Amino acid sequence: MTTAHKTSTQPISHTAVKTTILTGDRATGPLHLGHYVGSLKQRVELQYTHDQTVLVADMQGLTDNANDPKKVSANILNVVADYLAVGIDPELTTICLQSQLPALAELTMYYSNVVSVARLERNPTVKTEIQSKGFGRSIPTGFLTYPISQAADITAFRATCVPVGDDQLPMLEQTNEIVRKINNLAGKEILVECEAMLSNASRLPSTDGKNKMSKSMGNAINLGASEKEIRQAVKSMYTDPNHLRIEDPGQIEGNIVFTYLDAFHPDQALVASLKEHYQAGGLGDGQTKKVLEACLLDMLSPIRQRRERYLADKGELIAVLRRGSEKARERTQKVLFDVRDVFGLNLF
Ligand code: TRP
Questions:
Q1: Angle, nearest 10°, between helix axes 256-264 and 285-311?
Q2: Which range of residues forms the domain containing residue 264?
Q3: What is the CATH number of the domain that holds 18?
Q4: Which residues make Cβ contacts (< 8 Å) with residue 328, sequence separation at least 6?
Q5: Is 59 helix (H, G, I), strand (E, B) or coil?
Q6: Which residue's alpha carbon is nearest to atom 13 within ligand 1?
Q7: What's the CA-to-centroid distance between 24 and ligand 1, angstroms?
C-alpha cells in the first residue's frame, strides 16, 4: 500500500472513526485473477478496519455497451457471487448497485455543470479507451462523461480513500476538481477530497503476455474457471520463446508462468529454487506449468465451489444487493441534499 492506511485483519473498536472507502467494478463480465491480486484480496482485508462500500457499476458498464445491455445485466450477479466467493462479507462491506441509487444520477447532473467538455476530452484514460474502442466520431455522451458519474459515486459516500489501479488516477483527479468547485460555490467544505490507494501488487499480465487481461480476449483466468479451463490456460501460457530444449537455460523475465508463480504460489522458497533451476537449464516448461497448474487448482477450487453455491440461489444474491443498496440509498440522499442546497434548490 502506498498510502498511510494500515491493513490488518483485527477489527478495531467501534468508537474509532473509520476511514471511508469506496471501490467499484463495471459489471461487464465475471471477475478474474487480475482483479483478485489487484483489488479483491485487499478489500477482504480492508473490510475489518474501514467503512467500506463496493459498488457494482452497472450504469458505467452501459456507457460502452448500450447496444448489448445483456452484457451488463447478465453479469451483475456474477460479480456479486465473485465478491462473496473471495470473502467479501456483506455484513462488513456494503455491496450496492449503482442503478438503484438515484442520488448518483442526480449528482452527475449537478456536477456536469462545473466540468467542461474540453476537460473531459483531456482525461488520458478516457482518451485511450476512446481510441481502443474505435468509437470514431460516435462517442456516446455517457461514455465521455463517465468520469463525472464516477465522481458522483465517490463523493456520494464521502469516500476519502479509493483503492484503484493506476489507470483510474485521472478519475480521482477529476473527482477532486469537482469537489473543490462545489466547495468553492458553497463557501464551505460540503464534499471531501479523496485519495487513491494503489495496491502494491503489480498488475498481473494476461496469460498470453501480450495484452491487457480481458474476458473478451480469452487471455484471463476467471475466478469461476473450471479445472479444464485452468489447465487449458496454463498450457497455452506464454513462457520463454527461446527456451527450445529442456537443457537450455531459460529466461524468467517476461515468463508468465513465473510471474503467476510469484503472485500465487504459497511456497516462495520453492519458486526461487525453480527459477534457479530454470535459468541454469534442465527444467522444462511442462514441469513449471505443472507446478503452477496445481497451485491455481488448489487456490481456485474453493472459490469456484463457493461461487457456484451462491449462484445456485439467485434470490439470496439479489437480497444481498438489495439490502446493501437500501443502506447506500439513504446515505447518498444526504449528500445529494447538501449539493442541491449549494445551488439553492431545496425549496421543499
Ligand atoms: N471505473 C472503474 C473501473 O473501470 C469502476 C468504478 C465505477 C469505480 N465507479 C467507481 C471505481 C468508483 C472506484 C470508485 O474499474
A1: 50
A2: 227-310
A3: 3.40.50.620
A4: 53, 55, 94, 96, 101, 157
A5: helix
A6: 23
A7: 4
151 lines ligand 1 (CB under 6 A): no
Positions of the chain with pLDDT under 50: 1-8
Residues 306 and 319 in one domain: no
Q: Ligand 1 centre from 22 Cα, in Å?
A: 9
Specify the pLDDT at position 218. Answer: 79
What was the pLDDT predicted at 23?
97
- Helix (H, G, I), strand (E, B), or coil: what is residue 318? helix
**Which residue has a Cα nearest atom 7 of ligand 1?**
24
Cell of 47: 473490510
pTM for the model = 0.92
3 state SS of 197: strand
Q: Cβ(72)–Cβ(27) under 8 Å?
A: yes
Give residue 170 CA to ligand 1 midpoint distance, Å. Answer: 12
State CA 39 to chain mean position distance.
Answer: 6
At residue 212, the pLDDT reads: 78
Q: Which amino acid is at 307?
A: R
Which DSSP letter does residue 198 get?
E
What percent of the residues of the chain are helix, what percent strand, and what percent coil, each to the nearest 5?
55, 10, 35
- d(C-alpha 59, C-alpha 279), whole Å: 48
Question: Residue 13: what pLDDT?
Answer: 52
| Residues contacting 186, CB < 8 A, separation 6+ | 341, 342
Q: Is 266 helix (H, G, I), strand (E, B) or coil?
A: coil
Q: Are residues 335 and 191 in the same domain?
A: yes
CA-to-CA dists, residue 195 to 97, 176, 267, 292, angstroms: 23, 9, 34, 36
Residue-level pLDDT at 216: 66
What span, in angstroms and rounded, lies between the C-alpha atoms of 82 and 77? 8
Spatial distance between the Cα atoms of 179 and 193, rounded to a whole number of angstroms: 6
231 and 150 in a common domain? no
Can you tell me the distance from the alpha carbon of 186 to that of 194, in angstroms, rounded to the nearest whole number? 18
Instruction: Quote the pLDDT of residue 11.
Output: 55
Identify whether 221 is part of a domain: no
> For position 259, which CATH number holds?
1.10.240.10
Cell of 119: 476537460
